[in-house]
Amino acid sequence: MSFDEGDNNRSEGKKSLYLLLTKPFAVIGQNVISWINSMGAAAVFLVLALLKTFHTKQLSKVIQQIYYIGARSITIIMLVSLFTGMVLGLQSYHALVQFGAEGSLGTLVSLSLIRELGPVLTAIMITARAGSAITAEIGVQRISEQIDALETMRIDPFRYLVTPRITASIISFPLLTTVFDLIGIIGGYISGVALMGLNAGVYSHSIQAYVDMEDLTNGFVKAIVFAVIVATVCCYQGYFVHMREDSKGAKAVGLATTSAVVISCVLILVSDYVVTSLLMV
Amino acid sequence: MNTALIEFQNITKRFGEQTVLDKVNLQIYEGEVTTIIGLSGSGKSVLLKHIIGLLKPDEGRILLRGKPINEMKKTELAEAISKISYMFQSNALFGSMTVYENIALPLLENTNMKKSEIHDRVMARIEQTELTEAAQKYPSELSGGMQKRAALARALITDPNVVLFDEPTTGQDPVRKNAILSMIAQYQKKFNFTAVMVSHEIPDVYFISNRILALYDKTIVFQGTPEELSGFDHPFNDEVIRSLEGLQKELTGLYSRRQFKVLHHSQLQSRKSDEGYSVVVFDLSDMNSIVSNIGYDRAQETIHSMGKYIDKHFGDIGGFSTRRKINEFVTVLPFSNLDEAESIVKEFIKDFQQGEISNMWNEEQKNVLTEKCIDFPIKAGIAEGKPVAGIDSVIKLAKSHQKEIGRLKCAVKE
Fold this sequence. Notes:
The complex is a heterodimer. Chain A is mainly alpha-helical.
């Protein structure tokens, strides 16, 4: 082996090692850039959809979507909130009773539900029930050229498909959160008062004394933020299903639906922390 | 020639690194049926989507009535595009809406018409497209042909000046293919719109097209009439036309025009110049009346049966036939002079009137015959030609001799 060949081999080796060490950063960087691009595109998507809210023919479509996203989700929301409240009441009672503070059960259950669990669990439940359906419906309309057909008929697909769903979500989420809070508090009452023997007046008074309007307002603010996130993510995933690089056709609709649910849930939890921090300042 | 209604100048379209259209130049004229033909995947639909703005070209420009669309104001372009309708290959009907709702959608969303006006207009289109019974059904509950009609009704509801048809006959059986083409031709005449159609149904589309545009190797290689296309000397003819014509015979069992001409040439070239041959031209008269009385599908069934009967009868004695128009058949009797041909046709008429005419209806159609019948005349004309003369002049002469040879009886559609 000559000296030149030896130098070349060493140089190649260094290059390989350099590529090996930098590759993970490159992959992470690419994914982060792609994610930021998607977030930017989704933000533009949201703004464009909101700009078309106040159109003369929107009302009936918004009411139809409120029925679908809101009214038809009530049963599942009531069921989940009842058991959430009951579990919360049961666990909290056993914890509080050790400190002789079981009288605070109503405060703990109601504040937990109104400030955190109500908005978050409601949003997650609607994502699972209505958000996935929104993505699948719009996705199928995209791959079967129905969205192209709307364009050829001079019907703005944003106005027709996206805007009513986002508007309906912004209206439905706070209302469903209210239902969740109320039924959850009743669930806590069933556990604490009916099953564990806590005084009913103590439970009610602890709620009345420590829950103020700010707690309710903050809960609604979160619900609206989650509504915007869930509706935008779900509509966006369905609307651009044809641009997915990992698959096409029906499979792409399936993957888009999964992505919509996963991204919505992650963003709900991330934004919950951010909004909570901002509201507590 | 007049200014083209739609003109492409050097249009190039790429998807990533793949060039689909390369410097495409074409003209589409007002009031005509223009058909873009080419093999599957050759970019026909891509080309069509440029007209309505679903796709934008990477290079070149598109002119509407001589004005480049990229120089038009937004409102002007929107106004121009609003006069164009598009019928998708997949129909693109909304599955969650009934046929009625699908057809009414453009009016509900784009106009301020009263609900009663919209209802009247939608019902008129539904009746015209024979969808009355399907009005409250969902697209998934309809047959392929009915879905096509629903898509056509939706495309026509706004009274467009131009209708773009993307493979309107895809997935249909031969009878329905021809029924859809016949329907397009009839509506084009009735509503006087400009039709631009993408198809590979050769030669069926020739019967309804004024102009043919041939898309081959990413560009338009031919623009002209169907007759001019037969004399077009280009690899397109060998690779595309002949391969697609091989699928012909589906409807009537008859030869394609090209095969007919080849047979005519080969059978007569060895004949002496003074030896005669005969041509018979059959015509199922007044197609519009037939369609309006029995519907598109059954009208095509009639043509199908008639073609098969002509082929069987004259094929047995050495003749060969083709279909020249939607309702016109030409038979060559290569070894018969005028007298012999007249006697053969008399025999045909006798058979035809004594029973074969009723066999033209399949069992299903016989079952729907009722006492309320309407007659459709069938005409035939005979002429003698010499091998040296072109067949077109003999066909023309035969047509001028046409007279009624029988009547097709059928039930009026309830």
